[in-house]
Specification:
Strand content: 15-25%
Order of helices and strands: EHHEHEHEHHEHHEH
Strand order of the largest sheet: 2-1-3-4-5-6
Helix content: 25-40%
C-alpha cells in the first residue's frame, strides 16, 4: 500500500494591494514569487473590494467603491451588506487557506502597498497576535486626515469620526502597538507623499508609543510597482526573519 506524502507546511504572507488594483496586480508586476519560493514562504494576494455586488456609484470614482474597499467592515447602507474586507482578510480567508493549502496554521505575515499598506498596518494593530510579521510600502498611515481616507470613511463608516479611529494606524498607535518591528519603505518622488501618505505622522506616533519602526525614505522612487518590485525582496526577507525564527 502506498501512502501519499503530506506536503511540507510553509509560512504564509498576505499581500494587500492598493487603490484600483486586483489580486492579480501584485502577482503580475511585483516579481515576488521567486524570492518567496527561495525563502520557503507562501504568498496570498487579496482583492481590494467586492466585485460581484453592484451599488449606485460604486464604479464612478477610482478611489471609492470597486477597487477601493479600504480593508474595513462598512457600517453604512448599502455598503455594509457587502463591503466587509476586514472580515474577509482577517477571518474568512485564513480559514480557507489553512484548511486547503499546506501552510502552518496561525503563523501569518501581512504587508501591502498604499491603501493595502494602510490595511496591513491597521488590521495587524487591531488584532494582536493574529500576525507575526508586518510591513508596508508607501502606506496611507493616517486616513482620517487625508482626502482618500476622508472620502471613503464618510461613506463606509458615517460622519462620526470616532468610528474612523479603528481604521487609522496613527490613531491606533495611541493605544496599542505591534509585537514586533514594522518595516516601511517610502519613495520621495511619490506624487501622493505630502497629500495622502504623510509617513512622518507614523514616525511620530511610533516614537510616542515605543513601537519599533524602520522607516526608509528613497530619493527618486515614485508610487508605482517599479518601487514595489525594487523593495519587495527586503520585505519578504523581513517577514521570513519573523516567521521562520
Amino acid at each position: 500500500m502506498r501512502f501519499r506524502k503530506r506536503p511540507i507546511e510553509v509560512e504564509a504572507v498576505r499581500y494587500l494591494p492598493g487603490l484600483t488594483c486586483t489580486e492579480e496586480t501584485f502577482v503580475i508586476k511585483a516579481g515576488a514569487q521567486r524570492v518567496a519560493a527561495a525563502l520557503g514562504l507562501a504568498l496570498v494576494s487579496v482583492d481590494t473590494s467586492p466585485r460581484a455586488a453592484r451599488f449606485p456609484g460604486d464604479d464612478e470614482a477610482w478611489d471609492f467603491g470597486q477597487g477601493a474597499g479600504f480593508y474595513l467592515d462598512a457600517t453604512q447602507a448599502p455598503w455594509s451588506t457587502a463591503y466587509r474586507m476586514r472580515s474577509w482578510v482577517v477571518d474568512e480567508l485564513p480559514a480557507l487557506i489553512e484548511a486547503h493549502f499546506p501552510v502552518r496554521p496561525g503563523v501569518r505575515g501581512i504587508f501591502g502597498h498604499s491603501m493595502g499598506g494602510h490595511g496591513a498596518l491597521t488590521l495587524a494593530l487591531q488584532h494582536p497576535g493574529h500576525y507575526r510579521s508586518l510591513s508596508a510600502l508607501a502606506p496611507i498611515v493616517a486616513p482620517s486626515r487625508v482626502p482618500w481616507g476622508q472620502k471613503a470613511f464618510t461613506r463606509y463608516l458615517g460622519e462620526e469620526r470616532a468610528a474612523w479611529r479603528a481604521y487609522d494606524a496613527v490613531e491606533l498607535l495611541g493605544t496599542r502597538r505591534f509585537d514586533g518591528e514594522l518595516l516601511v519603505d517610502q519613495g520621495l518622488d511619490d506624487k501622493f507623499l505630502e497629500r495622502e501618505l504623510k509617513p512622518e505622522l507614523l514616525e511620530e506616533a511610533a516614537r510616542a508609543a515605543g513601537q519599533p519602526l524602520t522607516l526608509r525614505r528613497h530619493p527618486g522612487y515614485d508610487h508605482s510597482y517599479y518601487f514595489v518590485a525594487t523593495f519587495v525582496e527586503d520585505h519578504l526577507r523581513h517577514h521570513a526573519c519573523a516567521l521562520l525564527s
